[in-house]
């Protein structure tokens, strides 16, 4: 496996994923009972955008770098979820240097309450060592384990409510992500009341349409698609956009997500025309 998130940390896809992650947690926080956050591919937890890996790709320049450079007046008018995201990034930059950028476990722990718990998987030995070095939080259990079998072993959690964030290395997936769809179906069967958020890349619209058909055929209800494409679909680039499939989204999350993506899109788009941001139901109630 040669995938390393250091090359992609802080890009537009990370911005989208982390803003929506915080919005889901914010909605979960509105109920008194504790919940469990499960991250299937936790990565290193924290990244340094000044490293050769990040500098080589330069992807962060069209992601978090664009937002950091915005005038304060523009940031103050951003949706609440975007403001929370930027505050967490700024706090990390103040503590660890201008190149620091949080991973999804870090954002999640910042967005959770003291009563909530986290389970974080990472199967790559060297990356797991970085995760263990970076994350020191009594609420978080870190596991060097393949989430494709580990997830099913830890759900449903004792809290009975919570969020599973799934963001696998897609170079291991085939065509329309059949392995991922099988995991989603099996996890939902074990925990039908859990919230599942699945990030995926958009490079080929036909492949995404096949992926959505596979998801539809699972029979799972309440599947929400959140999507941002910074390039038009027919532009031959490495990554045109990304999506976040949310199963069992919390009340009002769809409105939160749409507001955030419509605000982010003009700041992240790569050209004046084309591309889009949208929130839609793949399957309703």
Name the shape in a single word.
globular
Helix and strand succession? HEEHHHHEHEHEHEHEHEEHE
Average pLDDT over all residues: 94
CATH top level is Alpha Beta
How many structurally independent domains? 1
Supply the number of helical segments: 11
Question: Which characteristics define this entry?
Answer:
single chain, 285 residues, alpha/beta, Rossmann fold, eight-stranded mixed β-sheet, two-stranded antiparallel sheet, globular
Overview of the structural elements:
Helices cover 41% and strands 19% of the residues. With 285 residues, it is α/β, with parallel strands linked by helices. It has one domain (5-283): 3-Layer(aba) Sandwich (Rossmann fold), CATH 3.40.50.150. The chain has an eight-stranded mixed sheet, with helices on both faces. It has a two-stranded antiparallel ribbon with strand order 2-3. Strand 6 (162-166), helix 9 (178-190) and strand 7 (195-202) form a beta-alpha-beta unit. Helix 1 crosses helix 5 (80-96) and helix 1 packs parallel to helix 6 (104-111). The N and C termini lie far apart (38 Å). The model has no long low-confidence stretch (mean pLDDT 94).
Outline of the structure:
By secondary structure, this protein is α/β, with parallel strands linked by helices. It is built from 11 helices and 10 strands. Helix 1 crosses helix 5.
């Amino acid at each position: 496996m040669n995938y390393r998130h250091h090359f992609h940390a802080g890009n537009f896809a990370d911005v989208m994923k982390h803003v929506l992650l915080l919005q889901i947690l914010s909605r979960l926080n509105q109920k008194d009972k504790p919940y469990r956050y499960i991250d299937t591919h936790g990565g290193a937890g924290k990244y340094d955008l000044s490293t050769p890996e990040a500098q080589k790709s330069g992807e962060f320049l069209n992601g978090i770098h664009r937002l950091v450079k915005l005038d304060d007046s523009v940031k103050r008018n951003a949706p609440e979820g975007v403001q929370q995201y930027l505050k967490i990034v700024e706090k990390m930059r103040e503590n660890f240097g201008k190149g620091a950028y949080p991973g999804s476990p870090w954002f999640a722990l910042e967005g959770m309450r003291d009563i909530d718990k986290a389970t974080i998987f990472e199967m790559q030995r060297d990356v797991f060592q970085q995760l263990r070095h970076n994350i020191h939080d009594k609420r978080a259990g870190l596991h060097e384990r393949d989430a494709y079998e580990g997830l099913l072993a830890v759900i449903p959690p004792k809290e009975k409510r919570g969020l599973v964030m799934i963001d696998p290395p897609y170079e291991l997936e085939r065509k329309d992500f059949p392995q991922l769809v099988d995991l989603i179906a099996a996890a939902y069967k074990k925990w039908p009341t859990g919230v599942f958020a699945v990030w995926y890349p958009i490079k080929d619209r036909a492949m995404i349409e096949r992926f959505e058909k596979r998801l539809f055929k699972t029979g799972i209800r309440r599947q929400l698609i959140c999507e941002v494409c910074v390039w038009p679909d027919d532009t031959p680039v490495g990554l045109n956009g990304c999506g976040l499939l949310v199963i069992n989204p919390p009340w009002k999350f769809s409105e939160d997500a749409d507001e955030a993506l419509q605000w982010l899109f003009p700041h992240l788009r790569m050209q004046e025309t084309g591309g889009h941001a949208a929130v839609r139901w793949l399957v309703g109630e």
